[in-house]
Design brief:
The complex is a heterodimer of chains A (182) and B (192). With 182 residues, chain A is α/β, with parallel strands linked by helices. In chain A, 41% of the residues lie in helices and 23% in strands. Chain A has a single domain, classed as Rossmann fold, CATH 3.40.50.970. Chain B is α/β, with parallel strands linked by helices. Chain B is globular and about 40 Å long. The chains are: A alpha/beta (182), B alpha/beta (192).
């Protein structure tokens, strides 16, 4: 299977590499994922738009990130695998759901977390403090994490999914601006 | 009737294949000691039994999923009811055992007493909601109401106002990893 990162232009006319949404969703389907849930971030706009049209990978719009952990955990208790999408602000919300449910009950979860609060968010102070502490929060939660990149994204995903299955615990992929949506 | 009376009666009404999710604290302890089968006894994750029930209902559409939750727990995860109503899974049944207390932590009051559950749940879009005050009700009549309500088709919410429990039950002896293992073994081999 060959994967291509598509080339698009952002609003400033700069060329950017981006992971093809359909390809990443097809890849996740091939790995056994049959449901998705979460709370949107603009970084996931393309992905969620595609999911809403996809009958084989239903997207459940949760009202809170901890609720999404509950839905995904319930889906696992029913013998099936889902993945999650959320902004890093949601890392603050999921603390109890993560530690007293998913990690305690050994629930494997693949959590895509948008990495807000970096340079592109200089004018968005609401993201800056969480952006600063994001990786420390993941470490404090003992959540294995990878930074998703346009090149070799399938290798990064494979590593994270293998780890998730091996330890039967949640793992996390940090997604910077422009990797999955402009 | 008390919460434990409701759960004891559910043991006679629920089918062997029905999957139960019970909220942390006394409700899970009662589910462990008073119901049969290996159920999904939550130890933590306050506020999440409804969302866990939703995920389970989506993964096992042929099974009936019963969520047993106290009022404090239900109110903490109230917004998850909006998601449930939006998805509308026909195999999900939510039973709120409402003693208007955080009973496990020593009986502190919740904010449940002034809520009209029927209006609230209907307003979220679930029309199949029944609410009964079982506090001074004769056990036989209460049991009949339960039986009749539980047999209803489709998604429903059953709100039961109950008296405070007086029984003390031991904690669940299984580690949560064991709860997961035992629960998943119930439907091993049935997965598509």
């Amino acid at each position: 299977m060959i994967f291509i990162a598509i080339v698009e232009c952002n609003l400033l006319g700069e060329t950017v590499l981006m992971i093809n949404t359909i390809e990443i969703l097809d890849y996740l389907k091939s790995k056994g994922f049959t449901l998705s849930t979460g709370v949107p971030c603009s970084y996931f706009k393309n992905v969620i738009n595609s999911l809403e049209k996809d009958d084989t990978l239903q997207y459940i719009p949760a009202t809170r990130e901890d609720e999404a952990i509950g839905i995904a955990s319930g889906y696992f208790f029913g013998g099936k695998q889902s993945f999650l999408l959320m902004q890093n602000s949601g890392l603050a919300t999921i603390g109890d759901a993560l530690t007293s449910l998913a990690q305690l009950y050994k629930v494997p979860l693949l959590i895509f977390v948008s990495y807000r609060g970096l340079e592109p968010d200089a004018d968005f102070p609401e993201h800056l403090i969480m952006g600063d502490v994001t990786e420390n929060v993941l470490k404090a939660y003992h959540l294995p994490y990878w930074i998703l990149e346009e090149e070799n994204w399938q290798n990064i995903l494979e590593l994270s999914i293998n780890k998730m299955n091996e330890i039967s615990l949640p793992v996390c992929l940090l997604v910077k601006q422009g990797v999955l949506s402009l | 009737m008390k919460g434990a009376d409701v759960i004891s009666e559910l043991k006679r009404i629920l089918g062997d294949d029905d999957l139960v999710v019970s909220s942390n604290g006394n409700v899970s302890r009662q589910a462990y000691h008073l119901l049969s089968g290996s159920q999904l006894y939550l130890r933590g994750s306050m506020g999440l039994p409804v969302s866990i029930g939703l995920g389970l209902a989506l993964a096992q559409p042929e099974k009936t999923i019963v969520v047993l939750t106290g009022d404090g727990n239900f109110l903490m995860g109230l917004s998850s009811m909006s998601t449930v109503a939006y998805i509308n899974p026909s195999n999900l049944k939510i039973i709120i055992i409402d003693n208007q207390l955080y009973a496990t932590t020593g009986g502190q009051e919740t904010s449940s007493s002034q809520i009209n559950y029927k209006t609230m749940i209907e307003g979220m879009g679930i029309l199949n909601i029944r609410s009964f005050d079982l506090r001074d009700m004769d056990q036989d009549i209460g049991n009949l109401l339960l039986l009749e309500s539980i047999e209803e088709e489709g998604i429903y919410v059953l709100h039961l106002q109950v008296e405070e429990d007086t029984i003390e039950l031991d904690n669940i002896p299984w580690h949560p990893e064991q709860i997961t293992e035992n629960f998943k073994n119930r439907h091993k081999g049935e997965l598509k």
